# Entry
Amino acid sequence: MSRRSFASDNNAGVHPELIEAIKAANEGHVVAYGNDPFTARATRLFQKHFGRDVAVYFVFGGTGANVLGLKAITNSYDAIICAETAHVHVDECVAPEKFTGCKLLTVPTPDGKLRVETIKPLLHGIGVEHHVQPRVISISQATEMGTVYTKKELKTLADFAHERDMLLHVDGARLANAAVWLNASLKDITAGAGVDVLSFGGTKNGMMYGEAVVFFDKKRASDFKFIRKQGTHLPSKVRFISAQFEALLSGDLWRRSATHANRMAQLLGSELAKVPQIKLTQPVESNGVFAIIPPRFVPALQKKYFFYVWDEEISEVRLMASFDTTEDDIRDFVGFVRKTVK
# Structure
């Protein structure tokens, strides 16, 4: 087995309980394209966790979930406001702009979090045909910097948006990690906070593949089955995504896995903070650790334990913990760091 790295929670394997769920779903024939009992049960679980009136659609991956969710609630002359570090801006190869036709308006932020005062300067030209029309505030929960919006912060953004006939979209690739940090239910920090559309991640929390697009007002999903199909994200064998979500949400697996990943990140952060040459740059609130490591040491560390440099100008790196990260992994890595930087 290869050494576990700290590059990404996408690099982890599949949780054994989810492998078993896939195997169990691999018996016999069922109707394709989501008209199967696995999808029906998974949908009911989403309604249990997020609200009985939600509409949920399963897709292959996170970029597809974000793009299609945004496509469903925008026109091509609209603008989507997001943080400068947002995944939709940095890591989706311009897919949001290409497929929605919208303009992304980005906001610089030191911690990945949007705030009302940073959004206000972008709200001009509303109703004027010469200008792009602000329509959606899109945030990540947890953010790309590992920070977490509180329920109050979410509600403030949602209220601000709704008062201006705008909507709040959440990229929830790591929503489970945020819920654990806040000791909240999934509903508390979505429907309960005024979120309109959610991309709910499974892959970063132990699934093989599969994400969900959740609409908290079914009317906004009236055409989504066509948008999903046209957007090439309607799997024929949906049951293998649905079966994983069923296993993730039927008990506490989603919370167990996220709790473990968060705890490992806390341990990693606290141990690295003891190394004088290293400085943490963000509070550790989910499963990511951001730290400045002197650049001359980075190549040697990456060769044995791969990770990404987040900001080359200041030699800030990102270290991610996963559901399968162990305390031994962290002790070994921190020990190697100490030997390397001394």
